[in-house]
Amino acid sequence: MRYYILNFLLLLQFAIFSSPTAHAQGVPAPAVVRQDTPTVAAQDTSVVVGQDSLNVAAPKGDIATTIKYSAKDSMQFEVDRKVVHLYGDAKINYGDMNLEAAYIQINYETNTLTATTLPDSTGKEVGTPVFTQGAETYAAKRIAYNYKTRRGRISEVVTQQGEGYIHSEVVKRNENNEFYGLHNKYTTCNLEHPHFYISAGKIKAIPNDKVMAGPFNLVIGDIPTPLGFLFGLFPTPKTKRASGVIVPSYGENSRGFFLNNGGYYFAWNDYMGTRVTGDIYSLGGWNVEASTDYVKRYSYRGNFRFTYDNFKNDEADVESSRTTDNALSQLPPSQQTFWINWNHSPVTKPGRGSFSASVNAGSQLHQRVNYNGSAQYLSPTFNSHISYQKTIPNSPFSYTIKASQGQSTQTGTMNFVLPDLNFSMSQVSLSELLTDAPATNKWYEKFTLTYNVRASNTVSNVQPARTRSDIPVLESAPADTVPINFNNLQRLWENGQKSAIHTFGIGLGNYKIMRFFNFSPSVNYNETWLDEKYSYRFDPDSQRVDVDTTNFGRVYQYSAGANLSTTIYGTVNFKPGKKVEAIRHLVRPSISYNYRPDFGDERFGFYQRTLTGADPTTNRALYQDLARFRTGAPATGLSSALNFSIDNSIEMKVKAKSDTAGAKSEKISIIDNLRISSGYDFARDSLRLSVFRISLNTKLFKFINMNFNSTVDPYERDINGTTIDEYYFDITKLKLGRITNAGLNLTASLNPEAFRTETTTPDNLPSLEREPFDPLLPQYVDFKIPWTLNLNYSMNYNRTFGLNGQNNLIQTVGLDGSLNITDKWKVTYNATYDISNQNISYANLQIYRDLHCWDMSIGWVPFGQLRGYNLTINARSALLQDLKLTKRSNTGYTY
Predict the structure, then answer these.
(1) So what's the pLDDT on residue 706?
(2) What range does the record give for the signal peptide (predicted)?
(3) Structure confidence at residue 192 (pLDDT)
(4) Coil, helix or strand for 430?
(5) Do residues 679 and 719 both lie within one domain?
(6) N or C: which end of the chain has fewer CB within 10 A?
(7) Is residue 312 in a domain?
């Protein structure tokens, strides 16, 4: 029956296309629709020449949907055999299946599609068949597919499964979209002839799930290796996260031979995964780490990592490995350490609060024993914080709730601020706070107010003794170190310094004086509340100072000031035709005055003078009633200071290089900023003039950045180096004073690409394997820039006075950059030379090799505590990240 239907449809198609009025008259479309007018021969075989495209409607039966096919050269219809031949760039679309090849045959009798290559005029096979179904793509020399049973047989096929490619001699595909391969090569190299592959006789692939192989071995450069196993399992999930075993790496260091970073990855879902790994060492000890990554789209992302290390150092060969050339190179004793890292980053949204966290805390020596870079090893302190911040919508108010912690890896001191509450009000007009009347531009409507209050509790595990050591006394008592554990939590809390600091800023407006001057007066008020207040009394019998403590203390301080500033322009124009058209000098002078009372005066009651000995004239000390607190204490001494500064910038206007009419002139900066500042305190009885501070920054030749700073003392000094109230500077001789310290920094970036155009950083380049001796390794290696060179020079000068006075000069010069020897070889370097001590303080050399589907890196640190080398060769694909070779020098850990 289908035979007659097909013949009828072909004849009906010819009749409809021969009658131009058929569609216009509303005749329904036939089952077979041609896009152009065919030429139909009289015999049973129809030959069509030219670009053809057919849509065969789906009748009831074996064909489930419409078959769309086309060919560039010709089509042949064998009606009696129910076969269609497509020649030249043949294409078939059947549901979610697409097939392209030089030749395709459709057999309606057997429900099969057959695709092969065809030889061209030179005899070369062209038009490789490509079969696509859903997200899966197959390329082969011959493809046979049954569209009814959805089974197929593919010869000499290359298919992609996830990040991997499978080369097979023969592949059979079943109705579940699974396929079985014979004589296979599994690789992540995308070349027709891969650099390496896993050779397996049999492979079964389940798309978007996994690839399973029988006995296999690794082949590199067509050379078989004995590396392999009895079976292989390669996850190829559709999602990026997949659970699986993490194969450990091996090597040797000062803790002996080791297996490193072996464990399991748990992919809970697409947004959260946990990595549990461990290390084990032949000389004793082990390490375990659990790391969880999480993300919520448009809300937050973060990582939490916990590490526990059981460090052992009780073997004789560990003792013998200690070196004596550096006092810091000896290993610490056996101990158990831990470390916690937590980073949480929110996506800020208007009107919503944001929670953030950055936690780096743990045992004192953990980072020294388990360092993975020079920055981590040399860091003396680690800081942590957890905070929640929110701005109240449609109001000037915001608040922050925070907890912070800091610890020293050298002394073991730990400081906590818990809790740390901050509430603030941004600048608002006083008239808006006091009345709802509209603004009328009155002078008092310019008054503004800002407010901030910070309430905190500061806790430290190193605390003074809770007796006389709370205050300055004749003899001091040793500090008390409190171990941090659950038993001491109450003691630590009670010894914390609880305070609330209120800050008010009152702006009195901005005013124009004589059109050119800006005048801005202001008033500041601070008030501090603390949980303790002291009063002192000298006991002549015991010859000591007795202290009485109350549970609440309040102190305050205030000041007033004003600022006067203006801007002065000066321009020198040159004659037309000159290369330099003009030079402009911009000057910004500023003068400010600040007044603050002496809060050490007895009328305020914040400080108390008390006898400390039998002599009432000489043994009288000044104590503050909040001696234990270092923040919030009012300043002593009257201040009536006039501060002044002057900023200068000079730029040049030159003729444009282009001769085009109307081309704009170019501006070149000669001095970005030259600043001179000082002050004069009228309330001092001597040494009223402050030191002069000079700073300069500019850019030379468009690629050299220069920064200079200096401090100049305007006073004379005696033979012992003590400053005396005699001016050294002489305006008539342009002498400001003696230079006490100075610093100069020059940096030059020589990058040919930077001179031509700005470069962008690729976002999708693969990262290289990071090792302990490659702390300067970038996250990616850019093989496009031919070379880069950065030079820097640093000079620091410091002068001391007196009989033993001397001039200290420290100079260093450094360079870093990269060099692309070829498109595949890249060298990066970094070195610093200490001119003062005439030695190389640090040097690092890295060599990278792009091996197409592999990466190779060689790192060498020839000097310093981290000196050594490392060699890493690893597969670039994340799927085979454990396929790597690592070799590094045996360098000991230090503390």
Answers:
(1) 93
(2) 1-24
(3) 77
(4) helix
(5) no
(6) N
(7) no
